[in-house]
Design brief:
40% helix; single chain; 4 strands; alpha+beta; globular; Dimeric_a/b-barrel; Alpha-Beta Plaits; DUF1330 domain-containing protein; DUF1330
Length: 115
Amino acid sequence: MPAYALANLTPPAELDDEVLTYMERIQATLDPFGGRFLVHGAPAREVREGSWDAALVIIGFPSLDHARDWYDSDAYRRLIPLRTRHMAGDVLLVDGVAPGYDPATTAAELRAARS
């Protein structure tokens, strides 16, 4: 099942050289784990509900194990401070859904569990 690394980042007003170095090097840390950027710091074009003032990053992986192994890899752990010294934010790893996922089936299971 696919998995994703999501980051909600607040970029600095001016990008520091360390942030640019982080950006230059991150793909090499993703490659061994099948990671690829799906969204990379794009501003929200249309906020339909709530508010959003951060940069969103979504990286896809073949599985949650791949995502964990990437995040915990020595190569990526060495890069993290280049970002965190200059950008506040949240990073999380989440499972995706299997092909053919149907939310109505999940709702039915949840209804049955309440009974």
